[in-house]
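hey so u asked for the seq, here:
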Amino acid sequence: MPTRAETNERAASLRALFEAQGAAVVEPPILQPADTLLDLYGEDIRARAYITSDALRGEQMLRPDFTVPVVQMHMAHGAEPARYTYAGEVFRRQEQDPERANEYVQVGYEVFDRTDPAAADAEVFALIAEALKGQPVTPITGDIGILMAAVSGLETTDDRKAALMRHIWRPSRFDALLNRFAGRTPVPETRAALLAGEVTTDAPHIGLRSGAEIDRRIAALRADAEAPPISAEQVARIETLLAVKGTLTDALVKLQTLAQDLPEIAEAVARLAARAAALAARDIPTDALPFAASYGRTSMEYYDGFVFGFQADAHPDWPEIATGGRYDALTRRLGNGAEIPAVGGVMRPGLMLELEADR
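ran it, structure tokens below
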């Protein structure tokens, strides 16, 4: 196990690599306002973060990552284009897997540049791949934006599409909703009774929802029950999309073929093609680079396009050594009306040192 001093030394060398690319060093505070992350991710974030209370500042959260505060800083004060780097501790609760570290050092590189998003994607990936050169790791890439485009194009209600969008990062919940909206699963008896008017709503209220909120929820459930099911053909196309995997070169051909029957994804697939060309221009062998359309769906919800990771070959149970992706929508959420294409990646120097100790 590397010492803290060894980890910090490696973190400093990685940060220097990004500084050499013109990145400005930033140091967001360890304590972050909790309301921003709660607004972005809902109450689910409480299961993954450490939250405390301050009499003057309200709820505060130990920094779960750097991306959100860096985006906030850039949207408030940054010039265009901009590149940032940072190194420091992040904190994640690990109640489901207590063997994993709940505090570790993260080093990152973030690019805010609207000139050529495909080139920026390739820049971030290539720099991190270079920093990991010689390490026994295997990369994987994906593109959340293609699935999002497919969901947006479904012939169903806006409420159903919004629900599927919310759960893209929760695959089991997404699949359950898709099956329900397609009429593949039976309506639970309790819901069927409620929809049939066999359940009254004049019982004493339990919980935080008001009577008006409960009535609106029941009305939404009834409206959903009256909507026609998503067609089997559309569901099959979503499932075909999620099953696409192979090398980036091969996957691109499969997705271009699928786009002929699913034109909603054509623009996103074109972005993937541009990214593949930009990666090839940086000597990344796209005919050997793994791609999976379903990759990245259990990461933080701000990724909405290119996603990537590097997994330790001999330790499939470890967290990924490096991860990253595109988060254009996050800049819109935090930009108070402004937005800019943005992509970044993070590395874990402590895990890099552990890998080296294995050899």
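Residues 4-19 form the longest helix (16 residues). The longest strand covers residues 82-91.
lmk if thats what u needed
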